[in-house]
TrEMBL record:
Name of this chain's protein: HTH-type transcriptional regulator TreR
Source species taxonomy: Bacteria, Pseudomonadati, Pseudomonadota, Gammaproteobacteria, Pasteurellales
InterPro entries linked: HTH_LacI, LacI/GalR-like_sensor, Lambda_DNA-bd_dom_sf, Peripla_BP_I
One Gene Ontology molecular-function label: transcription cis-regulatory region binding
UniProt domain HTH lacI-type: residue ranges: 3-57
Record's keyword annotation contains Transcription: yes
Pfam families on file: LacI (PF00356), Peripla_BP_3 (PF13377)
Organism, scientific name: Actinobacillus porcitonsillarum
Gene3D superfamilies hit by this protein: 3.40.50.2300, lambda repressor-like DNA-binding domains
PANTHER family: HTH-TYPE TRANSCRIPTIONAL REGULATOR TRER (PTHR30146:SF146), LACI-RELATED TRANSCRIPTIONAL REPRESSOR (PTHR30146)
């Protein structure tokens, strides 16, 4: 016999409205009650009846979105375009945050399944593996990282770094420092760092390198280890690192030109001479929505991996 919300409520000793709020991720539920209800839902693999929902007249179209960090400038730019595109197509977004934790992604995907969302846009990261995403083929598009069974939108990390460094080299810079991300991050970290080191080797430049975490605080802390070198410019792997570096330079009254991958209007306002590279974050948002909606409309649509172009500003 198919379980209903009423059955779940009876097993948990709560009202049907409480179960409904848990399913809809409403914040108006006591945390202990939510945990108890969610445990029963998970144990019974319960999902609301889509037919019953339709009979009640609910035709809401919902897309689940999993970002890694809501405070990321890059992801916020992509997310903003995603939301604009979804609103234009009368889809309702349901946004959650993974905080770079695979277990959080698995949990949120289970909740999306219970909510019977129409599709998912997922911001991938290095620790997240294909096995964590099973069951969503043809109903998911990933951003920033490509997984073979899913359509994906990703960035040209190595060539973007090469283009930025070539531009600086043409301007006459020969002592180019680099503030990067640890190699455990395979794209923003490992690939961009490798491109920097390869460029230095090819052009017989001394590499001046410091690596840290993906945060403003890390940029502020790591730049100090480079200040003893005679740098002509400092390249930052992300705008967040550049914000931290700019803060350090201002506080210590040091004058060092900055360049970075990505755009941040606030950073550019405070560092007028900043050299930036448009990494295509907004275009990624548009493309991700188009790929997902095409798949939802036609299950025979081929899996597509789309590399977003970049341009120097």
């Amino acid at each position: 016999m198919k379980l209903t919300i009423k059955d779940i409520a009876a097993r948990c000793g709560v009202g049907k409205s409480t179960v409904s709020r848990v399913l809809n991720q409403s914040p108006n539920v006591n945390p202990k009650t939510r945990e108890r209800v969610q445990a029963v839902i998970n144990e019974l693999n319960f999902a609301p009846d889509r037919t019953a929902r339709a009979m009640r007249g609910s035709t809401e179209k919902v897309i689940g979105i999993i970002v890694t960090r809501l405070n990321s400038s890059a992801e916020s730019q992509t997310l903003s375009r995603i939301l604009n595109e979804l609103y234009a197509q009368d889809f309702t977004p349901l946004i959650v945050e993974s905080q770079f934790k695979p277990e959080r992604v698995v949990q949120e995907l289970a909740l999306f399944q219970q909510r019977q969302v129409d599709g998912v846009i997922l911001f991938g990261f290095s620790a997240l593996k294909e096995k964590h995403l099973k069951g969503w083929k043809k109903a998911m598009v990933t951003v920033a990282r490509a997984y073979k069974p899913f359509s994906a939108v990703y960035y040209d990390d190595e060539n973007a770094m090469k283009a930025l460094l070539s531009h600086l080299y043409q301007q006459g810079h020969r002592q180019i420092g680099y503030l990067g991300i640890v190699d455990s991050d395979e794209t923003t970290g490992k690939k961009r760092t490798a491109a920097y080191l390869t460029f230095c080797e090819q052009h017989q430049l001394t590499p001046y390198l410091a690596k840290g975490e993906l945060s403003i605080e890390s940029g502020y802390q790591q730049i100090s280890s480079l200040m003893s070198f005679p740098l002509s410019i400092l390249v930052c792997a992300t705008t967040g690192l550049a914000v931290g570096a700019a803060k350090y330079l201002q506080e210590n009254q040091k004058n060092l030109p900055l360049a970075c991958i990505g755009q941040n209007p606030i950073l550019q306002a405070f560092v007028p001479q900043l050299i930036t590279l448009d990494f295509g974050y907004e275009q990624a948002g548009v493309t991700a929505v188009n790929l997902l909606l095409n798949q939802l409309e036609n299950s025979e649509t081929a899996i597509v991996h789309h590399k977003i172009p970049f341009k120097l500003i």
